[in-house]
């Protein structure tokens, strides 16, 4: 979400489950951060028939706030581990690539024409996008997911993003910010969020971390 500046080519990201969104946002205020905007959107993650979400993720994103629009997005992420911290950054340079924008029906038709089918949905609720002095960004959001008749409450999450000139700088820059936010030493998500959600919906163990205070439930898909 950050504005791209000359020489800064990588947007590195780390995602964490939160016990308390209020505690983190208090630290963000103390660090001089401000809320750039509030948001809410739903991602419908697609898959090829019979397959699960791969490293390449195709999703239909329905933005509800701050703007209403519907887009088909493609993303491919790379990971780098340094000292136990797994940092992810987009492999396509510009992050999520918009393949098409239009009505939900038309966007889904494009996805199906490419050979994909809807798999599950991730609802990003009550989101707030913060900016810290120096340009780092932190999103704080409540998340739930549903698919195939199962729904899972995933609780509160934070994603920290920084822009750096090289992948090698990502871990150093990220660690500095995490210390300021009181997240140093915390284990971030070791895989992509869609892959994590797919495992949670399937009731399978997930590598990396589980959302704390998460109370999964099984019920009818909303």
Notes on the structure:
It is a single chain. Strands 1, 2, 3, 4, 5, 6, 7, 8 and 9 form a 9-stranded antiparallel beta sheet that branches. It contains 4 helices and 9 strands; from the N terminus they run βαβββββαβββαα. It is α+β, with helices and mostly antiparallel strands and 222 residues long. Residues 1-8 and 208-222 have low confidence and may be disordered. 33% of the residues are buried. It has helices spanning 21-30, 104-113, 167-180, 193-202; strands spanning 10-18, 34-47, 56-65, 69-82, 85-90, 97-101, 117-131, 137-147, 150-164.
How is this structure best summarized?
This protein has 222 residues and is α+β, with helices and mostly antiparallel strands. Helix content is 20%, strand content 45%. It contains four helices and nine strands.
Roughly how much helix do the residues carry, as a percent range?
10-25%
Principal-axes shape call: globular
Class based on secondary structure composition and strand pairing: alpha+beta
- What's the order of the H and E elements? EHEEEEEHEEEHH
Tally the helices: what do you get?
Answer: 4
Kindly report how far apart the N and C termini lie.
29 Å
What oligomeric state best describes the polypeptide chains here? Answer: single chain
Low-confidence runs of at least 5 consecutive residues: 1-8, 208-222
Question: What percentage of the residues does DSSP assign to strands (E)?
Answer: 35-45%
Mean pLDDT: 84
Annotation, overall tally of beta strands: 9
Cα-based radius of gyration, to the nearest Å = 17 Å
Specify the biggest β-sheet. 9 strands, antiparallel
């Amino acid at each position: 979400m950050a504005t791209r500046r000359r020489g800064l080519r990588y947007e590195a990201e780390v995602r964490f489950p939160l016990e308390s969104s209020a505690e983190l946002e208090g630290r963000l205020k103390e660090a001089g951060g401000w809320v750039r905007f509030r948001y809410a959107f739903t991602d419908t993650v697609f898959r090829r028939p019979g397959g699960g979400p791969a490293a390449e993720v195709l999703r239909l994103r329905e933005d509800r706030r701050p703007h209403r629009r519907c887009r088909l997005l493609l993303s491919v992420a790379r990971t780098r581990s340094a000292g136990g911290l797994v940092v992810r950054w987009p492999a396509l340079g510009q992050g999520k690539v918009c393949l098409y924008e239009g009505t939900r029906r038309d966007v889904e038709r494009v996805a199906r024409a490419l050979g994909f089918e809807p798999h599950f949905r991730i609802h990003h609720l009550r989101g707030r996008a913060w900016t810290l002095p120096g340009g780092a960004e932190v999103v704080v959001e409540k998340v739930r997911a549903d698919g195939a008749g199962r729904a899972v409450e995933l609780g509160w999450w934070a994603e920290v993003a920084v822009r750096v000139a090289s992948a090698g700088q990502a871990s150093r820059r990220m660690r500095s910010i995490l210390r300021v936010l009181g997240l140093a030493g915390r284990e971030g998500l070791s895989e992509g969020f869609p892959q994590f959600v797919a495992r949670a919906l399937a009731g399978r163990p997930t590598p990396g971390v589980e959302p704390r205070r998460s109370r999964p439930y099984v019920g009818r898909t909303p």
